[in-house]
Amino acid sequence: MNTSVNFAGITLKNPVLTASGTFGSGMEYSEFVDLNRLGGVVTKGVAVTPWEGNPTPRVAETTGGMLNAIGLQNPGLDVFLSRDLPFLAKYDTKVVVNVCGHSKEEYVEAVARLADTNVDLLEINISCPNVREGGIAFGTNASKIFEITKAVKSAAKQPIIMKLSPNVTDITEMALAAQDGGADAVSLINTITGMKIDINRRTFALANKTGGLSGPAIKPVAVRMVYQVAQKVSVPILGMGGIACAEDAIEFLMAGATAVSVGTANFHNPRVTEEIVAGIEAYMMRNHVEDINELIGCVR
To answer: What's residue 277's pLDDT?
Structure first.
């Protein structure tokens, strides 16, 4: 029984990865999850310099999920290279670094500094605010996606995955722009913008007013968008958005994702990623699936 997939030229032992921002760099979860069992670990967003993130409160529970407005808080690339990367090197799993920046130059610098490390893939988070364009996220404008993808690709030695925002009119337009810019893969979906109001305090639940909605509530939207993008692009897709069990992961694979990232469910069940790997294997045995690639994009 084969569970391995070829993702942008990198062989993953299985298609289950973690979602950026929900798993740290694996340190916190390593006592619950055997990282060797995972196809890969996607790190929390890393920028060239430390980011403080948004003011608190910045997390709120919602029906079927959660809102977060962390603001990509991270200690910066120096700390990541000296602390997190050596930790991940101890495990037999692929390392995917999520890169964020406030300008094209910041992305390019980060990617260039990661070029000669033992990182397998780079996931470029283009939901960051572009400070030179008045704070609008790169990922909501097709021409900007093309431009930043092309710039990052020129500096990268690893395959690059462009992480797409669902907060757009046409997700396929954004995916095609990334592909045209040279992306080796795309990942989707990032969180959906939402809001919660505390009726007892008569104010916003998040200091930022709005936040990113994640969890089971967004899964049907995510599956739909993965399917739509799979019909348009030729690069592989890393699917995510509300995956909480093996059945959810398989749904994404059938919609056209080559691999999946598990995010918010990690907070509810720290062992969920390993359980999903086992669940996919059990499904394959139960349904006499010899090769997991038979499932990828089988729904047309």
So the answer is: 98
